[in-house]
Description:
The complex is a heterodimer.
Chain A lengths: L15 H4 L12 H10 L7 H4 L7 H9 L3 H9 L5 H7 L21 H14 L15 E5 L3 H12 L3 E5 L8 H4 L8 H13 L3 E3 L10 H7 L2 E4 L5 E2 L12 E3 H10 L17 E5 L3 H12 L4 E5 L11 H9 L3 E3 L2 E8 L5 E14 L5 E5 L5 E4 L2 E4 L3 E2 L3 H5 L24 E3 L2 H4 L4 H21 L2
Parallel strand pairs in A: 1-2, 1-4, 2-3, 4-16, 6-14, 7-8, 7-14, 8-9
Antiparallel strand pairs in A: 5-15, 10-11, 11-12, 11-13
Chain B lengths: L5 E8 L2 E7 L1 H6 L5 E5 L7 E4 L2 E3 L4 E7 L3 H7 L9 E6 L10 E7 L2 H14 L3 E8 L8 H7 L2 E6 L6 E2 L2 H10 L6 E5 L2 H13 L3 E5 L15 E4 L2 E4 H4 L2 E3 L5 H8 L3 H14 L8
Parallel strand pairs in B: 8-9, 8-12, 9-10, 10-11, 12-13
Antiparallel strand pairs in B: 1-2, 2-6, 3-4, 3-7, 5-6, 13-16, 14-15
Helix pairs in contact in B: 5-6, 6-8
Amino acid sequence: MPNPSAPRQNGKQLDPQIRKKNxxxxxxxxxxxxxxxxxxxxxxxKNPRCQANCPVGVQIPAFIALLKEGKVGxxxxxxxxxxLLPAICGRVCPQEKHCEGNCVLREKFGAVNIGMLxxxxxxxxxxxxxxxxxxCASATGKKVACIGxxxxxIAAAAELARAGHTVTVFEALHAFGGVLRxxxxxxxxxxEVIDREIETVKSMGVTFKTDVLIGxxxxxxxxxxxxxxxxxxxxxxxxxxxxxxxxxAVGVYSANEFLTRxxxxxxxxxxxxxxxIQIGKHVVVFGGGNSAMDAARCAMRLGPQSVTxxxxxxxxxxxxxxxxxxxxxxxxxxxxxxxxxxxILQDESGRVKGIKCTRNELGTPxxxxxxxxxxxxxxxxxxxxDTIIVAIGQxxxxxxxxxxxxxxxxERGVLELDEQGKTSLPGVYAGGDIIRGGATVLxxxxxxxxxAHRINAYLKEGK
Amino acid sequence: xxxxxxxxKQILNSAVVKFVIxxxxxxxxxxxGQFVILRGREGGERVPxxxxxxxxxxxxITVIIQSIGKSTSLFNSLNQGDKFLNVAGPxxxxxxxxxxxxxxxxxxxxxxxxxxxxxRALKExxxxxxxxxGARTKELLILEKEMxxxxxxxxxxxxxxxxxxxxxxxxxIEQLHNGGEKINVGxxxxxxxxxxFTARLMDKLGMTPYASLNPIMLDGTGMCGCxxxxxxxxxxxxxxxxxxxxxxxxDFDELIRRTSxxxxxxxxxxxxxxxxxxxxxxxx
Lengths: 463, 284
């Protein structure tokens, strides 16, 4: 019998005082007891709202039921019927917005911890050798190119391979995973997890190539000569800066630069690795999203005296996952709200020494319903800082649009799709942050999977 | 033949090495003014290096590297038959080559190699090209023969007077100007102070200077913004919008500050490398 009123299992986390000095994974995998106890809480609803609200349609009650019976291999296979990257999803999906946010138990007893159960299932099945790559359909003889190796592109590549197409993934950098590798830190998503999930996709016959920047090394038009269809999942690789005086002072990082140094280049291991990073005594991170939390928590691990997240609205409007904010606070990150930076102050040598800011109050709601920050006149003050990280969002990398004039883009630089999810160029599909501008890993994966289905239909029917 | 393999290695002087690397995809689309990103080992940096030459038929690219820090020292210790771990490109916006009469290409140190493909493209476009080459001393002056063969006129300057004019490239440019040469446009590549003063002089003499900037880069694809430079008061990303910019309004002092950010750490890294690295490169 299900046991919904039993306390929600939250698993264990590394001690904040220890983890803030290393890059080990914070959330520890469920023990078998924890996993079974949590699985018992699931009511196995007839019309599962969790599943209906999962961007990638994971059959949640079904996999939990298999897990309860101790059938870990079958449970992971059930997840992988719709989502081929369970160990990643289980870790980085904002479950509170999707499955767990819609669990019937949420109000009364607390939602089933679906994220941790998914992760447990994926990790355990992998460890016990029970995770099998899905069987691919017989070869169609069609070739598809996927641009980028981030979540959107690898989700598309895996689905396309499953349908029997010959798939090649082109990555501009030297390592695969896109934002999973350069953006998300190892304490949230260990590098081995990315490696293993990509191995699964490789084992399905997908070819992965590094060092190919589409738009520079080869153009989309070149790909269309060799491939029957192209999926663009090149992401949001263009940082937004503050646009205030002093922004090029020494010690000002975009979140992309800071996170790329730490995560992709592993600058925290310098001088064992060769890419350095400079951390000051007082770090200020501007922004309130997940990148801001990742940057703040990475900064904390590099050993400054203080790290402060400065956000222009109040805590209630912060877009970051609640768990990330909580983890950041446990690790000693301070939060200062209702702040707008006006000018970065420099010392004689051009190094950052502080930021001139103003205080805000909340005004009327904007189009998304979030209350706008309004500056309070005469509230200027100086926030001392010697390292500044700007984490106020990204825009699509323009390189493909610039070198492919046939592709229509909007004012914000995102690729335009028609109702069928096609770009303005026949045979070319797109998804993830290149069409969204800056969203989540899960929505990127959803786009990749949906585009793969459309490409399947296109290759079958030739339209 | 495997991609990224070094086909030939040629030692040009005590710190500078020329590599011909097998990389057909880049050779196919490279243009003057573009660069590649190299990595030599796992855990290694991504280092931007200007494309000096390329051969579509052979599928090769040529780079000339000066060992300055750990990564470049490691690169220059590679030998024929070895492979670079990663070679990505061609990156950056090619230099716009137009017919503009008499053009000066100004190279300082290893910058001579970097300005060479631009000189060639300018010649092909029908310009009269004057090469102004500078180095600290004769031994460090590279590609003089190639430049002399290519350009309509070649002037050399060394700081110590061991070859050509004793002085800086700026002295050579002034001399050309005073001698009646009507230079319309200049393309400058070299150390930042050299580019700064050359650009300033050219502007004063009524020439239009362009300079190829070498800020610190990470991905080289426009993703991180590390390479931002200020031109005409605007923030520009050198990796995608450059590296060549109109030089009159470049904030060179900011570039010097930003490229100095990691000097102490780079020094530490190089010292550790030199301590454990038994040199096989033939340079030491």
